[in-house]
């Protein structure tokens, strides 16, 4: 297990050399994604949690209820994994701790993805943002233009000057990356704007190094180089830990 502390930070669960889950406070988890999509109800989720004790796994308990198939469960688990990695990379990274003794098990692990492939994909997602901004610190307000699609109107409705991209993702029950990417495009199209400090009490994301990790120049020691760093990434202070 790799624990990454920071804003928003994250926990990377590894099994037999692949990443099977990434949990981050910056992104909605599998429960939110399943329930908000309407695939299952909140009551079904909690019932499956209870039944997972006898079934041996939450995945089996969910499938046994008949509301969702194994392929759909895997798709949601993989989406949550990718989104958790994106959420971790898009914020401040302070240190990494490799915990080889942890017995924590993710609720709904995916089949897994190679660490190098995951890092490459996350780097691509960050580089593809039309307008770089912080999904945690930058608060949003409506821009001078009016959006035409229902999805974009919903985002603008949540852009009160107090909400970040992360807040909007949780409010709409969507993954952080697609919301961040859409907001980035909307910023470029003047459908949204970054709220001024007087409105949002926000401040610059110290040059956005974690959103532009490939840019040359002096580093802060907190940003990740997603293109050259071996697994685990060099994120500031890194150490191993185990129970006393």
Word description of this protein:
Residues 211-244 are annotated as: Disordered. The protein has 244 residues and is an alpha+beta fold. The protein folds into 2 domains: 2-127 and 211-241, no CATH class; 140-200, no CATH class. Helix content is 39%, strand content 15%. The protein contains 9 helices and 7 strands. The protein has helices at 30-36, 42-55, 58-64, 70-89, 115-127, 150-158, 165-172, 176-188, 197-200; strands spanning 2-7, 10-15, 18-23, 92-99, 140-142, 192-194, 237-241. The protein has a 5-stranded mixed sheet with strand order 3-2-1-4-7. Strand 1 and strand 2 (10-15) form a beta hairpin. The radius of gyration is 19 Å and the shape is globular. The two termini are 17 Å apart. Residues 201-232 have low confidence and may be disordered.
